[in-house]
């Protein structure tokens, strides 16, 4: 709050037949009150001590009470009324839902020269008007500057938008160009890979003719050692081991077909005679494949049945020659 702060108020009585002009000069700790009636003028200086005494009567803080008085005088309130009567300035406040009015602020008035009071009113009103015009001019200048800055900012924004659109277009063009180059490169590499694959397939077909058959290929399988057999059987379960076991029942020796102690229950074996190899064939080094023995009636007749009762000494006509080297060659 400054010393130059002033307020001009017009108050009327309840009937509207009387009006008074009030001028208030607000200070830090009080205010000066000027009142002009139709033919009289009044003056009063409200000091800090008076405000403090009235605030204590209402059980309020001095600053809060001062702000309330200023608010009630400067602004219109339905529950607040002002009267100038019997050389007193009285501010009434009415509580809500009550018809009784209470004195909220009261001060004694002193009579002053009427013409001097009017001159003071006019001078202060003119000064306030000039100050208001100056503030208005300052606000207009600020508004014009704000409008200029707004136009300048809009121009910069539009320029930035154009630059952004241009940069986006260039970036999109560069991206599309790079993408097309990558596509062409991928297509070229794919065609090159297909050509290489086809040429390699043709080369493989040339090296491996189709006339070769799988029937000419002989697969040899080495016999498994005892150690590998034991290791593989170690991982089998008890059920798998039992399925592999073959239970052999012993038959009594008094069966019908008793072939002797050495032969057991098996039928007699046919022992073929050793086939002789021609000397010309043996000298050429050719390998004679093994020939499966066909159990034909003629071949069976050419062999002798093994008989346990057969005496080897009686077979003098057919001498069997046994050569160890020939046997090893055949193996």
From TrEMBL:
SUPFAM superfamilies: XRCC4, C-terminal oligomerization domain (SSF58022)
Regions of compositional bias (Polar residues) in chain numbering: 208-222
Keywords from the UniProt entry: DNA damage, DNA repair, Nucleus
Subcellular location: Nucleus
Domain XRCC4 N-terminal: 22-79
UniProt-listed InterPro entries: DNA_repair_prot_XRCC4, XRCC4-like_C, XRCC4-like_N_sf, XRCC4_CC, XRCC4_N
N-terminal signal peptide: none
Domain XRCC4 coiled-coil: from-to ranges: 137-189
Protein name (database record): Uncharacterized protein
Organism whose genome encodes this protein: Aquatica leii
Biological classification of the source: Eukaryota, Metazoa, Ecdysozoa, Arthropoda, Hexapoda
